[in-house]
Amino acid sequence: MTRREFSASCGSSVAALLGAARAMANAGGSYPVRRRKRVEVLYQSPEGHPNGLEATPEGLWLAEQVSDRAYLLDWETGRPLAKYETQSSNTSGIAAGGGFVFMGANGPAHRRPRRPHDVAQGGRIVKLDAKTGQHVSNYQTPSGGGVHGLLWAKDALWITQFRPLKVVKADANLNTFHDFDLPLGRPHGLGWDGEHIWCMFSNDYLALRFDIRTGRIIEGVELDRGDPDPHGMTWWNGALYYCDAGIAPGHKDNLSKHGGAICRIEL
Fold it and tell me: I want to staple 245 with a disulfide (CB 3.0 to 4.6 A). Which of 83, 90, 116, 231 is the partner?
């Protein structure tokens, strides 16, 4: 082995060890983390503050954080196919399945005039009829606190919960019957790849893939800090999709320069 080959080998080994150590420090366990290949901005959301995505064959469901409207978008163009007014507030998370659309009301509204049905404190899950947009019911979140992500998969509603940090599984009437722990703070969007749940951790720009039975972390995919801010997320046809709500801690005036972007992550 030449000196150059030896040096390169040592450098690769050190990089691998540092990567493993970072993963363990982030989440208290060892799992592979890979950098995303590319983030492609597909189009803008109708109003510029998307904070929830859910993939369906009919189109891409999107929740707007400020107006609290639910949109169904054409996959190719982003053109609205449906638009519903909801009883959500400060929306973070949307799910669609079982004939319903679910919105995550993450507390009181801050950037629009108050409405009588707004959440005063804590969180709420709002249920709509998927075909008509008619309001069906409101439910307290499993912990009574805020919510950032929702997903419909395996005929159940999956919810990100705070204090303690968990993903909670419930039926369409919010009766809970399973959960698993989350290792990082500020969990946002959820995606279902047909076998596992992905969860986006916005502070860490990191999407983790979980075994839904045990909560074991299978792998992670890391975004670059220059990518659009990760908020709502979903999975469709082998790729993760996510959105930038434009309202982002750590940015000047709390605004992201990529606000409103709907993106696809090439894994």
Answer: 231
